Amino acid sequence: MKAIKEFLLNTLKFDNSDINKKIAKNLLESYNTDKYLSLKELSLKSYCSESAITKFCKKIELSGYKELIICLQIEKEKYLRNNVENISFGQNYIFDYLDFIKSEITLNRQWIENFKISLQEKKKLYIFSCYQLMDIANFFREYSEFKGTRTIFSAIRHFEGRSIQNAISENNSIILIFLSGQDNNWLIDEIYSVIKKNRNSKDIYIISSKSQSNKIEQKNLYQLNSYKMYSGYEYRRIYLDILCLTIFEDYKRI
């Protein structure tokens, strides 16, 4: 399979189809900003049908739009690893990254303190997560329960409905939402939007990647920034594990 970015650039320059050029232009914009559209959003922005986008994807031997986005993200990560100036992976990078985590947590100290105060005031914590951060959300659940907070989290999407209704009706609880990656429209539309309409915004806390933070209100938002333009999943996992320990290590249920 040819490089996707190269294919998009060539499409923009040489393809005779205006539709293909619009699709390529919008995908390159997503690549550069790390803000990927849903299939429906790309269809509307490109003034074409969703089937036209699927046909476009098959020109580079991909099954559809979802696979294209995943491959494009992987391609960019590889590019950043190999080509971005001043990024040198290894032991020094890891130690520098730990310093970066410390500085980010310090900058977000008020968010952490507000979250801990809310936990102490309420009796229960509901956690909802995108697919990409499910294992991290489960770690938050395990550690918050270890520290004495009753915590509800299901890693199975089918069971989210009951949790949503309970989270809406139980005012004596707070809600934590993890948002990252691209396959999360269901989390925004079916969970966040519903909860936001029915609960006080001060009880809703969000941890979001920078690329996804534009989809939600900025109140009680902890934005996960990238270090030197790059933070692969393995590094983000370290960041969030340390954040969890920072929140709960000195936390005590009153």
TrEMBL record:
InterPro entries: Homeodomain-like_sf, HTH_RpiR, WH-like_DNA-bd_sf
PROSITE patterns: HTH_RPIR (PS51071)
Domain HTH rpiR-type: 3-79
One Pfam family, short name: HTH_6
Species this protein is from: Spiroplasma culicicola AES-1
Name of the protein: HTH rpiR-type domain-containing protein
A molecular function GO annotation: DNA-binding transcription factor activity
Superkingdom in the source lineage: Bacteria
